[in-house]
Specification:
CATH architecture: 3-Layer(aba) Sandwich
Largest sheet: 6 strands, mixed
CATH class: Alpha Beta
Radius of gyration: 17 Å
Strand order of the largest sheet: 2-3-1-4-5-6
Distance between the termini: 19 Å
Oligomer: single chain
Number of domains: 1
Strand content: 25-35%
Number of helices: 6
Helix content: 25-40%
CATH superfamily: P-loop containing nucleotide triphosphate hydrolases
CATH topology: Rossmann fold
Structural class: alpha/beta
């Protein structure tokens, strides 16, 4: 089984915890409290015919906790970077989060930009153009995905997409044994065949 460490970052109250809980439990609680410090969830998903265990780290959005964030980012395979479509400042705030992530020891290679609270479209503050301009300034993968933890729209696909991008960016599949292993290795760690023989 493949294991990926995932970090979820964004300002306070953008919906990080709601997104994770909807994905892991299928439930939405309108009274979800803000995370204090760090929370942690796990869930198995099937990606490219492989079972992947996602270890998802939910980090508090308040500024006073951000000095602790780099130690949790280190070694992460991927990151979900969240903004709230009804809060213009939440997108601007991501500049600070991205600086922290990119300057952390061993930062994740794969980052997706996620817009939350799509069920509140009628009070949207951020235009698609605003978001695309921000997206183009950073090294995000794929495309912007907007979701609703309340309705469940796009929640599952966000985590599957992140898993697929991590596989593509960080791992290689061995032609001989079928296992995925880190791209930086010359030989498959499972059957010892050379990378050149992989696909």
């Amino acid at each position: 089984m493949i294991k990926f460490k995932i970090v979820v970052a964004g300002a306070k109250a953008v919906g990080k915890t709601s997104l994770i809980r909807r994905f892991c439990t299928g439930k939405f609680n309108i009274g979800t409290q803000s995370t204090i410090g760090v929370d942690f969830e796990t869930k198995k998903v099937v990606i490219e015919d492989s079972i992947v265990l996602l270890n998802i780290w939910d980090f508090a959005g308040e500024e006073k906790f951000r000095t602790l964030f780099p130690s949790y980012v280190s070694g992460a395979s991927g990151a979900l970077i969240l903004y709230d479509i009804t809060n213009r400042k939440s997108l601007v705030d991501l500049e600070n989060w991205l600086e922290i992530i990119n300057n952390s020891p061993n930062p994740p290679n794969t980052k997706l930009l996620i817009g939350s609270k799509l069920d509140l479209e009628e009070i949207r503050q951020l235009s698609k153009k605003d978001v695309l301009n921000f997206f183009s300034r950073y090294d995000f993968q794929g495309k912007v995905i907007e979701c609703s933890s309340k309705t469940g729209y796009n929640v599952e696909s966000i985590f599957v997409k992140l898993g697929k991008e991590i596989l593509k960016n960080s791992l290689i599949k061995c032609k001989f044994c079928g296992n995925y292993y880190p791209k930086e290795l010359i030989y498959c760690q499972f059957c010892a065949e050379k990378k050149d023989n992989s696909i």
